[in-house]
Amino acid sequence: MSLPHHLSPAVREPGAENPAVTRRLLDAYLASALTGLDSEQRTHLFDISDTVAEVCLRHDVRLYEPRKVTDPVHHTSVPDVEVFRTDRHRVIRSDFLVYLAHHPSTGAGQELVFAQEAVVPILVIAHMDTRISRMVTGIPGPLTLVRYGSVAELGKRLDQEIGELRPQLLRRREAVERLDENRVGARMRALREQRGMTRRQVAEATRIPGAFGAEQLREWEQHSDRLNNLSLALLEEIAFALGVSVRDLL
Fold first, then answer.
1. How much is the pTM?
2. Nearest-CA neighbor of 61 among 121, 132, 128, 118?
3. I want to staple 223 with a disulfide (CB 3.0 to 4.6 A). Which of 26, 158, 201, 227 is the partner?
4. Same domain? 89 vs 167
5. Residue 215's domain spans which residues?
6. Are 105 and 211 members of one domain?
7. What residues contact 108, with CB distance under 8 A and at least 6 apart?
């Protein structure tokens, strides 16, 4: 499958016409259950994870695995808020998310929401005999279901799916790169400072009590539009607290 000619040379894949172009690295996030699994379940899940990692490596995809950074068994010293912030940012900045639907997980469910809200494509992996919640298969947006009977079959299926998805992922990468600018956050800070308000005062001036805190506002002011990915409801509360319209923040 060839890429459209309007894509920049840096994004085009190498081929007979342009063999010197280096394949661009993509980033993926591996979402799965980690909390509450027994040793046998963890071993099986990690075997599947290793297969996913091997396939990703063949396709020049850097796979982020939370089990190696914020595992609830081996990384208990990582603060809860840091786990949330790290995993959310990793999901949003990924080119696609791989979800292992082998065991129910509230954490992985959160990661699916992060991906859906940021329009991050989702690959759902499940054994043929696994029943998957319709809250997962019903997610609107780019979602692909990969069923398998054996680990060897999973490797082949995943290899095919990622290969076919790669051109679309590159197009998406180019489209979202503009969101790496900090436009909304910078505008919030400028309006807040014009009014002589502290972040705490802005947080306390919302209509919804506890809608966000001063520390959260600090992050929004400093981070890119893509990482913030602010909902309309939050933008409405920020605008109200600052005495402006949502349009003034955009």
1. 0.80
2. 121
3. 227
4. yes
5. 182-249
6. no
7. 31, 32, 33, 99, 100
